Structures
1.
Amino acid sequence: MAESTFLVVQPGVLTTIQDLGRFGYGSIGMPAAGAMDPYAHQLANLMVGNSLHEATLEMTFIGPTLVSKGSHRIALAGGDLGAELNEIPLPSCGSWTMREGDTLTFKGGSGVRSYLAVAGGWDVETVLGSKSTYTRAKLGGYQGRPLKKEDSLNVGSIVTSLRWQGSLPMNLVDEFFSTEKPIRVLWGPQDDYFSEKEKARFLEQSWTVNKDSDRMGYRLDGNPLIHLDKKEIISDGVCQGAIQVPGHGQPIVLLADAQTTGGYPKIATIISSDLGRPAHYKAGDFIQFQSVTYEEAIQIMKERQQQIHFVQDWIQSRERATSHLWHIYIDSKHYRVRVDEKPENQ
Amino acid sequence: MMRLPRFLMQGDRGMVIEFGQEIHHQYVEQVRLLMVALEEARISGVEELIPTYRSLLVRYQPLRIDFYELQEKVELLLQETNRVLAPAFVTDIPVCYDEEFGPDLMDVANHAKCTAEEVIQIHTSADYLIYMLGFTPGFPYLGGLSEKIACPRLSKPRTAVPAGSVGIAETQTGIYPLLSPGGWRIIGKTPLRLFDPQIEPPVLLRAGDYLRFVPISREEYLEISKQVESGFYSAVRRPKEVQ
């Protein structure tokens, strides 16, 4: 029987196994962890026919160099990290086949985070209901840590295999990874620790992402916000996406590895549809926030679900079509040309 | 009849039910009562409950139940005044206060102007209320440390405090469940595991319960360590006596 693994030749900058998070243990102080961008993670799974919860590799700045043992369907979704399959550049969102001995590399690109799914999922132990790596407790994922050189990644068994492969049209998913549009928030729970004037300043200015930003939280720099009176609260519960403002007035956006409780006032909280967007910002980038109402947030959540269904439908429609991939060499330059035969009703 | 708490939004899938803004044992009790009631009610769309000193965070799926529907259900639960809390438990935490495990014990004693034995005696003669678990998985925030042995944090935190270390910071005392950095004054170490992801439940303690430190010798420490290692140790838990 052929081996069903990937060899890690280079680990990349920070590559961890993540799924949608370890929920249900917040009451014991266990952070949920999970993919920084849950939507990119879900798209990658969708393109290889996995369940949306299946584990993917979260790659940061430069992904790993992986050699395929056996034949595998893979998918990438997220920012552009300069992926190449056997030295042929790949688009940042799409699905391809890796055959025995094929090499996937990342040269680095304009993106910050991307997700690599494999049909069947990355086969690691489930710890407290999740495969997500939480590095601070050395728990979950691949031995509780980021990938290292010479690790060997096993692949699980395939549930649904898809025939379709290729790249996802960017207009379907552009909005998911945008670093242009403001990130939408709901006020609170402690916005009453700030005057209306300070709340307006929170929205008006562009905040710079500080270099001390990681999976736990992003520190933002700007004109400090001034608390009305108290600068601390007695610790209460924290959700991913909460934006706390410590005494110095520079906000911290709490993300995937956020602690479960915290003692600073939380001026606002990112709506769940935009929770994955900070993942695509790097140090020095500007972040701006926009406030929405609860009703608007719910509406956006419904639209986001529809967008995912739309991508699902699009893949299903390709599944019914036939496509041919041509490798054409002109003056020793290599071109890939795909000819799609569209299904009848399109 | 309970005073009605405040219902605050934390994003579009978090509800903070706030009983008060300061630390008070009455709030801890109210949080615990509501948590038990919500666990029993099994409301569809409620995903997770996170209790703290003074509030309960409810994570929910807004497409299954929205904030206002959830608030109504919680208010109904709060009106059931005949609810009686199950008794709290006290878990014994054996601690060896030898110098190799408690490098800061003498400093705490000097600060309190007493002997090391007196610090141990004071530290082990109270039941500590577990307000909440947090910071790292299983870390208990405890109330009830005697002012007499309160001691400021180290001016320079250690980069690595071993798992099981028992420390003091101002009027708080606690136990490090995992090897982690920390600035608390370390006075001893327990051989028990506060957090073990391989067992269910993965933590030894629960918010709203109590713990009591029990002094043990180095020999007892090693013996219990062995039992914990082989999975044969079971922690001593007894109902809290009503005072």
2.
Amino acid sequence: MNRPFQDLSPPGRKGRLSAAFQIQARVIGALILREIKTRFWRNRFGYLWAFGEPALHLLIWMGVFHALHQNRSAIHGDHPLHFLAMGIIPFFLFRRVAAFMSRAISANQALLDYPLVRHIDLMLARFLLESATMLAVGFIAFLILGQLGIAGPPRDLLGLLEASGLLILLGLGFGAFNAVATMLSPAYDKVLAASWRVLYFTSGIYFLGESLPPAILRLVSFNPVFHGIEAFREAYATGYQSSAATVIYPLVWAAVLLLLGLIMERAARHHLREA
Amino acid sequence: MIQLDAITKEYRQGSIRKRVLDAITHTFEPGCRVGILGANGSGKSTLLRLIAGTELPTRGSIRRTRRVSWRLGLTSGFHGSLSGYENLRFVARIYGENPKGIVRYVEDFAQLGDAFRYPVKTYSTGMRARLAFALSLALHFDIYLIDETTAVGDPSFQKRCRDELQNRLKTSDIIMVSHSFSTLRQYCTHAAHLSGGRLGPVEPLPEAVRRYQEKTAS
């Protein structure tokens, strides 16, 4: 009778807690292995797509810039491709984490037949896998751009990590909120589709905060992702100083969304398990 | 041991609220082999789902100090595009078991041969059921939950299922729902009657069956 219990009563509160964490750790570990297989290995091009999607957006914007004869960077001395990469790669870091997490519960409904698997495990597994994947994608992308002589080494590595962390946390907040909200209301998916578009065009992928008129800048500053991308550019590019980027504002967004997501999950847990 | 503490389960359908289980308090002691009797729609399956932890009670709490199975024969937890092997390893991992040992047992019991390496979505219903059944036996649960199904597959495999389950009674407990008294007699020593959302007293099986038949006849 020395097998692990489903949930332990005695001995004591401490033993119960550590046993619960052990179970959660192995469930999340198993989920990550499963997600890797279903996400990437089911289709051999899965890994390729992790790079392909941001690369495609990069090329499209290059085309747009070329057509507009804007073949120079908004940041003095930077290659336009580097300028775009500094917008698109951090944006996808946020978006991929958020989008992959948004489907964490709805795509894994069947798993809830195993009582050990909880909603939060589904979300955490996807969060960990996708942030690690996208960090690796970003690192390799800039490495390649560096080898091609397009991007130099980052000016402020610590700042770069901070900006990336900020975007990942925003992805966590958005993702957790969406994962639960899509389960509660079918109409939410439509809201979500629209908000992806708004975020894409207002996050500063193809423009700098500095280049905007003050009135528009104020409007765009409501978008928390914009702050993350400005911070990313500031840390990477030589001589760019963003006046709009703050750390607190996107952090508050991330924290509030994450909290709301968790509260909704707690309140609707019965309902979600019945679906 | 499984402790049900005043569990109530309600389902909402639009504005209509239906109470399926009504403040049930009961303790399933170790060594229990209990059948649950009740008419269709009396909430037997709901009770099993709550005990399994697949669903949560609307009010009240459930404490489990031993490892409880999912409902036997359940196949919905498999991922269609993963192979039989991959699905087995995943479930073994979440239960903290050595995947190799589980795979060996299931290979031996389910006898699906090459099919283990194919995606589960290519399986027939019977093959899926064999995989799931063998897996739930491989995991050595302390308490097995049975919702009518005591065996799956073709007649010869069904016999294997029943024999193995019978064998398992030496070390594991059972809580089962069945309309067949002969099945109940094979696996259970006691039974309780679920009606009107309340669980009656647990009595020795013959008495419970007699009382149940008297009640439903009148």
3.
Amino acid sequence: MPFKFISMFLCCLLLFPAQAAERQQPKLGHHLTPQSEAMHAPDFTLEDIDARKYSLNDYRGKVIMLNFWATWCPPCRRELPSMERLHQKLKSSDFVVLALDQMEDSDQIFTFTGDIGIDLTFPILFDRDSSVARAYGVMGLPTTYLIDKKGNVRFRAIGGREFDHPEVEKQILQLLQE
Amino acid sequence: MPNTINARLAKIICLCLLYTPAQAAEVTIHKIEASGLLTWTAKDDGFSVELIQLNPDFVRAVYGKRDFPADEVERIADYCVFGTIIQNTSQQQLSYRVADWRYIEKGGKSNPVKTKAQWLAEWRNAGITFAWTLLPESGDFGIGDWQQGFTTIKIDRNETFDFIYTWTLDGVKHEGKIPNMSCAPAPLNQPQ
């Protein structure tokens, strides 16, 4: 088991490798792209680390930030703390964050959450075969969608972002007021 | 007949106006001191590309960890693999297609860059579905969007090549070039 954790940790350093870590990654921006074509967010039911089931339709009437990510993905790791700060700030409103991990297992998530140094308090769900990612047309990680109260995808971000930026918060508050 | 020729000429001229050939992008090369590996960064008008040499053992580690069959691990490790970061630095939507990208060998032979879809089609036969590591074969980027993943090039590890990439911005297809790129060296105990 310790070997498994060590190997997972090493893989968390990969893509890109420690050898490339000294290179600066792109700065995390805050622009979300409005979706011109109406897309109704496909429903799904996925489990979290405790095998508790979550369905998107359970959150109808709320504004949802839907994030597709993986533990080995550097920009995913960089943006998660800002997502947690945003979640903490808006958790008393009708705003929820759902983070859909791609093709990993509970051991990998357990190791990652221990390693990241902050508690992620929003649901982390397992999209084990990436079928939900395919349904949303996700091409790469991370990709994040903002879904309005009626279940329509309204904004998209490809690549890492600072989600607790005031501009993002403003867009969410506008969706909450609709 | 002359009208037909004129129409064809007009069409060709229009296509030329909508395409800008390989420009001398602002290319910087960075050597990672710890490993000696190289990184090329090309900044064009509205689009940037960064290619990071990855050594074969690193590629083996990535795919071995993912439980890829040993022969498939070796097959991709035999490619010249680059960690790739692409970014929309414009204030508009842009798109890219890896299928339009190519690399030119020193003798002038132009080759297409293998796409994620092509890898997936081959891997499917081996029961592999995990392909998140590879650079997506295409994308429509909004302002601030960026993406990263592996780019794979089939070339002798000792050869140098020019890398040609394209992107479409405001209906105009642009082309950039990174000259004299090279693969990460194979470990010393392996045939070069």
